[in-house]
Specification:
- The chain is α/β, with parallel strands linked by helices and 333 residues long.
- It is 35% helix and 24% strand.
- It has ten helices and 15 strands.
- It has a ten-stranded mixed beta sheet, sandwiched between helices. A five-stranded mixed beta sheet has the order 4-3-7-8-15.
- The longest helix has 17 residues, at 147-163.
- The protein is globular, with a radius of gyration of 18 Å.
- 50% of the residues are buried.
């Protein structure tokens, strides 16, 4: 039997998904004697970024009854996120290892097969939690964890739609969890019911079933926005980002930084966009904030240990509160 702990009545942004114990090291694992202990997961990374910007946010996480689960829940809560923890005594918390290789690449290896989070079920989202949210944020990772996790995403989308709660969706395709063709169908189903969709340019092509074409960034954003409800943001890595909002294109060049650790940059980008949007900033301002936050996330070690988005002049916490209440190798296993 699972046990649910934490608040279940919070408002603001709601998200849920798998966060794992993270073991990180500077060098190849074969040559390391020690690794740094941390935590990371796409949805909790976004939640932490939102909390740092002053946005009320709740994250629902499913972990084992083990020290790794204790660390995951504690780390996320310590960053100002309202945590609803589902503890599973029969399954373990997932683990990932991150190596910063001598050639500059970051290699991440996931050990998540049969993890506690893979058993996500619709009942893990307490009654009323989705309905009280100002925004529901989801990713394609949760869709790919298991059949029951996918059912949970779809159930949450239906609950949000019925309650008039807007949905944010980041494709976050994981090819070792799902093949392109299967994933495309899953992603399109959620994107079609989302208020805003985020994707890398390769992910946008996957969702749209398009081949790569030179200079097609704006077309990708427009077509993805047409699939959703008028807003799509396409992350272009070193080329910046492009957004299509109500038929208008907004572009932003990348902010040049010395890259220390690129993992989590996309999540920082999404969090900054959502925080700015909730605060009533223009799409151009939101894109500026997102690009800066994503770049700054690359300058520090850790999936979420990044400069406070508030330091970018993004928004004052009070403004956000008012608004709310009115690149690397991956091996999955």
């Amino acid at each position: 039997m699972t046990a649910v702990t934490g608040a279940t009545g919070a408002t603001g942004v709601l998200t849920f998904g798998e966060t794992m114990l993270l073991l990180g090291g500077h060098g190849a694992l074969l040559e390391l004697d020690t690794m740094r202990v941390d935590t990371g997961g796409a949805e909790s990374n976004v939640a932490i970024g939102l909390a740092h910007a002053g946005v009320p946010v709740t994250w629902v996480g499913r972990v084992g009854v083990d020290p790794a689960g204790d660390r995951v829940l504690a780390d996320v809560a310590a960053q100002g996120v309202e945590v609803v923890g589902v503890r599973d005594p029969e399954r373990s918390t997932g683990i990932m290892m991150k190596e910063r290789l001598p050639d500059g690449r970051t290699r991440v290896t996931y050990h998540r097969g049969g993890s506690a989070a893979s058993a996500f079920a619709p009942g893990d989202l307490p009654s009323g939690l989705v309905e009280r949210a100002a925004l529901l944020h989801l990713t394609g990772i949760t869709l790919a964890l298991s059949d029951t996790a996918r059912e949970t995403v779809h159930a949450a989308v239906v609950r949000a739609t019925d309650a008039g709660v807007p949905v944010s969706f980041d494709v976050n395709h994981r090819p070792k969890l799902v093949d392109d063709v299967t994933g495309r169908g899953w992603y399109r189903a959620v994107a079609a019911r989302a208020a805003v969709v985020f994707a890398g340019d390769d992910e946008a092509r996957l969702v749209l079933g398009r081949d790569e074409r030179p200079g097609d960034d704006e077309a990708l954003a427009h077509e993805l926005a047409a699939l959703a409800n008028g807003t799509a943001v396409v992350k272009l890595g070193s080329r910046g980002a492009v957004a299509s909002v109500a038929g208008t294109i907004h572009r932003r060049a990348a902010s040049p930084v010395a890259v220390v650790d690129p993992v989590g940059a996309g999540d920082a980008f999404v969090a900054a966009w959502l925080a700015a949007d909730l605060a009533g900033r223009s799409p151009a301002e939101a894109l500026d904030a997102a690009a800066d936050a994503g770049a700054l996330a690359c300058t520090v070690h850790g999936d979420w240990r990044r400069p406070d988005p508030g330091a970018l002049g993004l928004v004052a916490p009070g403004d956000v509160d008012h608004a709310v209440h009115a690149v690397h190798d991956r091996v999955d296993r």
